[in-house]
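Extended Data, record N-acylethanolamine amidohydrolase
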Amino acid sequence: MSIYPSTRLLVCSRFFFISWLTTVEIVIPELHEMRIAHIVSIGPESLCTLNPDCGGGKGVILTYDTRTNLAFFHSFIAADYVATQRLR
């Protein structure tokens, strides 16, 4: 016996509803290029936002993933940013 009887009813009703659904695959052209353009345009913005907080050795409070991403964002140049804005 469940302590949440309404939960079982909800799960059963969702299963019944989902069993009638079908999956349709869609293709978005140039999705990979749009993802890269998003990273190149958002990356320097986050770098500019976090850079004052990370100066003077205070960057050690960030996780290794964040520090790796910030180092990666340092490699972008202004021409990359302009090219991604044209793509977006």
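Summary. Residues 4-10 have pLDDT under 50 and may be disordered.
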